[in-house]
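ok so for the tutorial part 2 we go from a plain amino acid sequence to predicted structure tokens. step 1 is just haveing the sequence, like this:
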Amino acid sequence: MLISTGRVARTDEGVDRLMTRIAIYDTTLRDGSQGEGVNFSLQDKLLITVRLDELGVDYIEGGYPLSNPKDAAYFREVGDLPLKHAKVTAFGMTRRRDCAPEDDTGMQALVAAKTPAVTIVGKSWDLHVREVLGVSLEENLRMISDSVGFCGSRVPEVLYDAEHFFDGFKKNRDYALQSLQAAAKAGARWIILCDTNGGALPEEVAEALTQVRKAVDVPIGIHTHNDGELAVANTLAAIRQGATQIQGTINGIGERCGNVDLCSAIANLALKYEGYELLRPGSLGKLAEVSRYVYETANMNFRSGQPFVGTSAFAHKGGMHVHGVRKLASSYEHIDPTLVGNERRILVSELSGKSNIAEKLGEHSLEGNPELLALVLDRVQDLENEGYQFEAAEASFVLLVEKLAGRYRPRFERLGYQVSVSGHVEGETVTDATVKLRIGSTVEHTVSEGDGPVNALDSALRKALAPHFPRLAEMQLVDYKVRVINARAGTAARVRVVIESQDGDSVWGTVGVSENVIEASWLALIDAFDHKLAKDSLKDKTV
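step 2 — the prediction. this is what the tokens look like for a chain of 543 residues:
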């Protein structure tokens, strides 16, 4: 059964088409938090809830109210959020074996969460019923029916997640379908088919959907994991066979190899197929922003090669590619990056031709200057021969161009720095950094301790610059990489340091090269601060 919005859209050929609404069910806060290294505070969960609502997500699964105090607190506080679109959903399991639902603490917790919808997960694979739950096949069906019926009489909407459905369907098709029918008969508003182990293939998903839609007359959803790198493909296969809900997480975070990445699933459906309506109108362009917000909130590094929303998703390095993009963007891009809130990036490296450099100069209103073009190209190639690399350090490249063009205006002058590392009597290592700068007519001489030389230098720089540039408080270092360039030189080898920084608006990389790792770090740090100050100055001029 398809869910139609009733809205008619006109195609480019002038044909009217009835749009099918695809509901988006986000489980970042529950299933996503089960990923290794992922941990959300209560405040994180509430803030992400607001962002997902603004994006136009239809359901936000907040967690299992009985599992821990944080999830219980979330359901107490989320009701105070002024959500405009999304339904917050509590998640739980079917009742315990040989226990009435009204006597089951899990069932009681779901109802007590007072959410407009609850999701109940149950077993559809006979192997799990017998070997994991340790109950009869008939008792499992009663557990599903009783749980859905109990919550359905007390909560506006019940969704049923059929765990391990595709494995169960392959092993015992009749029983897997009976488990769905039990939920449907008990009043489930949605039935979601889960590829819990992430091992299904797209053709298997399509075949199962065909049979499920014959067996139950309830809207079907799809919940896939990415263990076979097929979560998005399996999700699209399910939608093409009539599923009308997608359960997944932002950025695909989740247990083991993760869940389906909603960013990719949504973008593919919205931009590659006709006839589907997702999210709120006009909100597709927020995908990249929400993706990066979740990464930042989870304190995770961005995945640069992530399709659609990654920083490298529309990055071009080869000169032939850049030449083609300058003439016709679609020649090397499958979509317009702005549709998902992303942007095109032209990378600069030793492989760069004039097209790359010309494109970068055009971004800074310096196009049409052949002398500068040749100067920048020569300088980049010389620096890369020394060990510099600008692919991940665009901020350093921009500063280089500004200097070669004669437009660079230093906001502070470096007078010197010193770093000392000493042992403490208790055996601890103490690192001190001293920085001396001139800002205008003022000389700042500061010292700071830190967890290592880079942290100490960063702290001392901030202490010197903050009184003059208070918006530096927005900036933070998020990644630090060191690579030996000429390893054969042993301890005298040159090293390249790349630092990634971010503020509330953007992420940028800077680079420094030296035989001394502290000197290389200092050069990369200086560029990072310089770029932030230049960016803020430009922003102030345009406000």
